[in-house]
Target: Fimbrillin family protein
Amino acid sequence: MPELDSSGAFTVSNGKDFMYTKLEGIVVQPDKTGDNAMLVSLPKPFTRMGAQVITTVKARNSMQPVLPTALVVNFIKVSGLYGSLAYKLNNTSWETPTTAADASYSFEKFDANNTLDYNPQAPRTSDLAVLLPVGGTQKMKFDVNLTVQYKSGSETKTSTDSYFATIEKALLPGMTYQFDFSLTFYGAIVPSDLTLAIREWTTTNLTGEDLGKD
Model:
C-alpha cells in the first residue's frame, strides 16, 4: 500500500502500474471469528491510471541503399514525460502536475535482440512498460540507439549511433500504445531516415461466465 502524505495523496512514477477502485457500503470483516483472512467482492472494476507502452525496431526491408546485415537495439529513451504524478484518495483522475514534463524513461530489454546475427528486418520488441499519461500538445522525443552491422565493399563494419524522432502525442490512461520504428540506411549507415508508426488500442478484459451456456 503506498504511503499517504498529510493531504491524503501519494505519488506514482513511470514504470509503476497503478489502478484504483472504490468499495462503498461494504463491511470488511472476517467471515468467522478468529479468521485472519477474508474475501471481498469488488462491485466495480479497477480503473487503470497509466498508459501501457511497447516499442519495436526493425530495418524497413531488404531494398535499402545500404543493406544492414545485423541490428541490435541498445535502448530507446523516451523524453517529455512527467517524472511522477500525485493521486489523492477518492479522486477519479491525477492531481494537476506541479512540475514540467521533462523526465524520461528508457526501454532496455528487447526480444530477438541478443546477438548481431539475427535478421535485421525482423522486429525487436521491447518489454511492456507503464508510463504516466501526458497531454496531446506535449512533445515526446525518442532516442533510438542501435548497433548496426553492414557491408562496405568486402569489409564488414559495425556502427553504434542514435536515431531521433519527435511527435506530439497524448498518452491516455487505460490505453495501450505501440511505437513501431523502421529504418532506411543511407551511405555509411548515416542516421538520417527513421519512420515512426503508432498503433493504439484499449485493452478490454472479457469474462468467461457465460461460456458454454445455451
Observations:
- Residues 23 and 42 are 7 Å apart (CA to CA).
- Residues 204-214 have pLDDT under 50 and may be disordered.
- The chain has one domain: 4-202.
